[in-house]
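Query structure, 177 tokens:
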């Protein structure tokens, strides 16, 4: 029900009128909704809810379909939020690749540390963390068995070797061997 008095970002005309759009067809009446969606998208990015942010930006792009060569404040904000999302996704993808490489190499101690430092937006974060924790826990249990009083040296060697087979970067076992 508000009178629209802002210039249309597509045609540049200012037509005070009621309703959802400019006479050129651009949905300028959606401005408030677009502003709200951008605020929600930024909030989702701040909390690393990247899929949600992407969905909100897609809605915004559908509601504010400026053709190439046209820009306004909202289109620029939308572009900046989209760039931020892309940067975050690229960063998380790089972190995920490094963690998966560590885990393929059975470097679970380093992987666990990287996963804990990674944001909650890391794909499969909980599963990766659980896998790393289980491997490190198993290696530590073997090391504890090896350090128990009365364990023969040969058995200690076997236990430390098994700990390293599970977790190649378990330094306690490497040092003891």
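Result returned for the query:
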């Amino acid at each position: 029900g508000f009178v629209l008095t802002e210039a249309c970002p597509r045609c540049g005309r200012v037509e005070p009128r009621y309703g959802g759009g400019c006479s050129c067809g651009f949905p300028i009446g959606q401005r408030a909704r677009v502003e709200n969606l951008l605020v929600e998208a930024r909030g989702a990015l701040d909390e690393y809810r990247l899929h949600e942010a992407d969905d909100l930006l897609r809605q915004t792009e559908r509601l504010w379909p400026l053709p190439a060569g046209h820009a306004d404040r909202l289109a620029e904000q939308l572009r900046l939020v989209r760039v931020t999302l892309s940067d975050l996704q690229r960063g998380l993808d790089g972190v995920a690749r490094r963690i998966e490489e560590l885990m393929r190499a059975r470097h679970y101690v380093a992987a666990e540390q990287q996963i804990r430092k990674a944001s909650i937006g890391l794909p499969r974060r909980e599963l990766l963390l659980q896998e790393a924790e289980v491997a490190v826990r198993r290696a530590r249990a073997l090391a504890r068995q090896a350090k128990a009083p009365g364990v023969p040296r040969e058995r200690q060697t076997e236990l430390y070797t098994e700990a390293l087979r599970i977790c190649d970067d378990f330094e306690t076992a490497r040092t003891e061997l």
